[in-house]
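anyone seen this seq b4? input:
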Amino acid sequence: MESNIAKEINGRFDPIVLIRSDEKPEDAIAPRSSRGGCVMAFVAQTIANRKTTAFGREHASCGGVWSGFGWGDGFNSEADLEFQATFLSLGVDSAKDKDAYSKRLERMPAPAQEMFRHGERIYSDFDTACYNIKNRPIYDEGEYIVFKAIENLEEGEIPDSVVFTLNPMELTALVQLNSSFRRTNAHILTPQASGCQAIGAFTFKQAESDDPVPVLSPIDFAARSHMRRLIPDEYMNISMPWELYQKLEELSKNSVFQTHFWEDFGNKNK
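predicted toks r here
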């Protein structure tokens, strides 16, 4: 299908879609069985190269992606949750049991040990990390997450998330479009979450709202580090449920995109 917003923006990257599925498309690029890695590297391939990619439960290699893609919370025990909360805060300095945390790191490769020792520092302390982890949107359905270019969306397919990848000027225009029909000021969600959780579970949650808003990401540097080979650092993702995307598509036909302001900024932005 053709996206009018993408046509008006005429940017470097057209939107992609995320679809929850029980089947992996035959043409999809996917990790080898039992191999994982960061899913955001696959997202980047779809964004930049327009390749259909898929990521399954059998590939999930980090606690965050389980909740991010709606496959439960990903924890087998309270100790697993505490380990993730320690990593997402200050590492060893946040650990309830510093010796036990450090011993678990010994089983990791040296570069990972260093990262986990210092922590990702998304949260300022262990308790804040625990609270946010426990309050993520949790779903448990589907075996695969499929990413595809929006132009490859087949008739009858309904995406769970539409993901734009935009530079600052393009993002400005889309934010204005998204705000143009609203009467409140809270127009965009910026969850303290991993990139996969933002385009996944947090966007799924917005689909349940009577007044959904887009989700801005990635604000975690781990996700960005896996995308930067294909996506320049200044680009952001903004994801939204299908119904909101359809509304913005219609609004885009008589919007900021038809003003001399966008003609000026948009042309200079190319």
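The chain has a mean pLDDT of 93. The beta strands are 16-21, 53-56, 144-149, 161-166, 215-217, 236-240. kinda curious what u guys think
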